[in-house]
Amino acid sequence: MTLCAALALVGFAAQAQDVKGSAQAGQGKVWLCIGCHAIPDYRADYPLVYKVPMIGGQNAAYIAGSLAAYKKGERKHPTMRAIAASLSDQDMADIGEYYAAQTTSSPKNPLK
Ligand code: HEC
Fold first, then answer.
1. Topology, domain 20-100
2. Tens digit of pLDDT for each residue in 24-56?
């Protein structure tokens, strides 16, 4: 059982490495996300309606992995599933790199 889990993890890591993300490419792909995962102050626009996680500054592989999990249906949030379904592996990698590079002093995304 443990061995299975380990093999699955290795498989996942190998797969994730095939696609190299680019923060620059990601900048043009996050316009979909900014409405909810607002970047400048890391707060959602509708904090009373949704509890939206902060994704700026998180690990790129974690972000891409979460998006893949929504796409595959392993994570269930309906809006995130619909959005992730429209993203390619390359998009997810780019978006992961983009968000990972964000800090509180990052300039606002001009495409916002
Ligand atoms: C309509 C609002 C909305 C939009 C648009 C949206 N998200 Fe989300 N996102 C959410 C909510 C709400 C959650 C928490 C869902 C859950 O609990 O599974 C979430 C969760 C996530 C997570 C998981 C975070 C974690 O800590 O586990 C990632 C990664 C993410 N979104 C990335 C994106 C990206 C990238 C885009 C654009 C392509 C995007 N989201 C667009 C509302 C949104």
1. Cytochrome Bc1 Complex; Chain D, domain 2 (1.10.760)
2. 999 899 888 877 776 544 444 444 445 677 788
User: Does the CB atom of residue 79 touch ligand 1 within 6 A?
Assistant: yes
Predicted TM-score (pTM) of this structure:
0.76
Place of tokens 């790199």: 97
The residue with tokens 């043009």 is: 28
Write the DSSP assignment of 48-76 as a string of letters: TT--PPP-TTS-HHHHHHHHHHHHHTSS-
Spell out, as residue ranges, where the chain has pLDDT lower than 50: 3, 7, 9-14, 40-49, 112
The letter for the amino acid at 69 is A
Q: Is 83 in the pocket of ligand 1 (CB under 6 A)?
A: yes
